[in-house]
Write a structure and sequence with these properties.
single chain, mainly alpha
Amino acid sequence: MYDKPFITRYLDHCRTKASQVIAAETEERLVSPCGFRRRNFSRAELHVTNIRHLRHHSAQLTLRLRIDTDVDIPWVASAWRDV
């Protein structure tokens, strides 16, 4: 459905946005409520929850690729690096 150049551009967009949002956070904002009425935790906890949510979907995608196409995604044990 999506070609590799599109996915690469989208990944760059997500990394840029994540870097900007995290850089703009202050200690005061991180300890403040997250802004969602149904969630009773801080903005810092919201960031951790979002990371966990992304990891969950990444694992689901990896499983679907293995089951549907027999494509294995190797584990990468390093932080992201600018290429």
